[in-house]
Structure formats: structure tokens, C-alpha cells
Recover the amino acids of this structure.
């Protein structure tokens, strides 16, 4: 079954053009799944039943995984069995009728306008790392791009004269995102003063580099933004996606069209973007409750 998994991941990379991060997630979910089947004594993929898949989801629940993570694992399993059926390694798809775990869609966590301002101003000084972090934070909030898209940028992806960035999103879908004047100026200064100081002969090729000159990773950026938020006195556990949520919500609160926000975020389905309209309504209800005499 391990060989079938390798075949599937290779197919997903070549035929479906899935991003490396997506493939990593699928591979992790499916290796857990195959380990579970092995523990159940299942030696052939054709012997898998819907009961095995339901048992796998229950085992994930027992390990403390939430409904969101279990739903993603089920998607991985469904795609795997669909591939096996398509390539005639199996005669049925036992995952097709397994219901997804029920999950309550929670509203995304946001930063207020003042918190965003403090975060953007947190890298104080003119050192290479301060200029780098200021450019990254300004670009992240100005564009609403994902952290994987941010660290994946190259200098050639920037169109600084027009104030746009070319972003490679999920499933290798490219989009052009405006970055605004402030972010463009911060990136220009980083390119002129900081990046040359960080770059080494054997260093990274991406736009943003570590103190040692290597390409900055998603994990590295997570640590940077958390540390800067703490220094700025922000008590929330700040994440890159929280900045993306704030970008979308602040646009809608200031009158942006939902379809425009969908395009900027790179959402394939507008239903994904509509969660931010709920955030705006919740904020209005909270303001009414806090300030109206009979709230």
C-alpha cells in the first residue's frame, strides 16, 4: 500500500499540479491512514471498507484532532481511493459514502486597526532585519496574501513601478495583487539596503532572506511575526493568517465589493469569502450592544 501512496502523490504532483504544501498535508494524512489500516490487519487496499474509514476518523478524534483536521483527512482519503479506482488498482471507492465530521464554522480571529498599526510599526531601527520585517509586514497586510505566497516571492515577481505583485496561489493559480504605495516603498528600501547585506554567495534566491542569507520559510516567518507582536504589546497569539483575515475584513468594513475581495484573496469560491461578511455583521452588533442606550 505504501507503493500505491507513492504513485498517488506522484500523480497528484504531475497531473493535478498540487502545491508542495498541499502534497505534504495529503501525504501526512494518508500515512496515518495506512498505519491505521495496518493496525487493523488490512493488508490489501481492496479489503478496505467504509467501516475502516469511519474507524480511522474516530481514531483521529480520540487523538484530539478537531473536526476541521478530520474533515481534511477524509478529503485526502477520498482523493486517494478515487485515484485507485481511476487507475484500476481498486474496484470501488469505500470513502464515497462516508460523511464528513460536523464542524461549526467559527469566525476568523482578527487584529483591530490599532493592533495592525502597532504590528506594522514594531520593527524599529534601520538594520537589515528591521527593514526586512517592516517590508514583510507591510506587504502582508497590503495584499492579504498567504504566508506561503509571501515567502515564495522572488524579486522578479514585484512590479514596483505599478505597485503590484505577481503571486502564485493554490493549485499554481497566478494572480496580480496591488500592494499600495507604503508597502512598495518599504519593499524598495529593503531591496536597496537590507537584502544585499543579508545575501551570501551560496544564499537563497527568494525575496526575503534569513539573517544567514537563506530563503525564509513559513515557520521562520511565523516565529518572526509572533515575536514582533509580543514586543508590540499585542496579547493575542498573532499568526500570518490573522493578518490576512484582518486585510479582508477591513476592506469590507470600508466598503469594498465582496467579489473584489474574493479576487484579491485568490478564493476559487465566493462562499469562502462570505465568512468575512459575517465578521462585519458581528462587529456591528457588538458596537450596537456596547454603545446603544438599550443595547
Amino acid at each position: 500500500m505504501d507503493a500505491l501512496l507513492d504513485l498517488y502523490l506522484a500523480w497528484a504532483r504531475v497531473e493535478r499540479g498540487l502545491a508542495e504544501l498541499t502534497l505534504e498535508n495529503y501525504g501526512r494524512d494518508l500515512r496515518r491512514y495506512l498505519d491505521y489500516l495496518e493496525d487493523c490487519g488490512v493488508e490489501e487496499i481492496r479489503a478496505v471498507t467504509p467501516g475502516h474509514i469511519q474507524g480511522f476518523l474516530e481514531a483521529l478524534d480520540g487523538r484530539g484532532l478537531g473536526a476541521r483536521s478530520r474533515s481534511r483527512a477524509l478529503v485526502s482519503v477520498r482523493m486517494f481511493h478515487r485515484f485507485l479506482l481511476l487507475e484500476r488498482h481498486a474496484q470501488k471507492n469505500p470513502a464515497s459514502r462516508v460523511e464528513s465530521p460536523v464542524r461549526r464554522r467559527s469566525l476568523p480571529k482578527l487584529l483591530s486597526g490599532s493592533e495592525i498599526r502597532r504590528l506594522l510599526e514594531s520593527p524599529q531601527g534601520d538594520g537589515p532585519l528591521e527593514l526586512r520585517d517592516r517590508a514583510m509586514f507591510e506587504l502582508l497586510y497590503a495584499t492579504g496574501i498567504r504566508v506561503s505566497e509571501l515567502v515564495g516571492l522572488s524579486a522578479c515577481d514585484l512590479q514596483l513601478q505599478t505597485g503590484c505583485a505577481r503571486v502564485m496561489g493554490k493549485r499554481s493559480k497566478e494572480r496580480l495583487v496591488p500592494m499600495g504605495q507604503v508597502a512598495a516603498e518599504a519593499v524598495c528600501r529593503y531591496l536597496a539596503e537590507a537584502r544585499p547585506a543579508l545575501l551570501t554567495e551560496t544564499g537563497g534566491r527568494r525575496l526575503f532572506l534569513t539573517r544567514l542569507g537563506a530563503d525564509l520559510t513559513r515557520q521562520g516567518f511565523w516565529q518572526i511575526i509572533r515575536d514582533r507582536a509580543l514586543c508590540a504589546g499585542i496579547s493575542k497569539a498573532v499568526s500570518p493568517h490573522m493578518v490576512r483575515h484582518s486585510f479582508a475584513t477591513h476592506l469590507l468594513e470600508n466598503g469594498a465589493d465582496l467579489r473584489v475581495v474574493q479576487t484579491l484573496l485568490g478564493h476559487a469560491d465566493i462562499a469562502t469569502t462570505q465568512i468575512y461578511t459575517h465578521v462585519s455583521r458581528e462587529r456591528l452588533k457588538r458596537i450596537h450592544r456596547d454603545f446603544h442606550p438599550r443595547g
Notes: Strands lie at 158-159, 164-168, 174-178. The longest helix spans residues 20-39. The mean pLDDT is 89. The two ends are 60 Å apart (CA to CA).
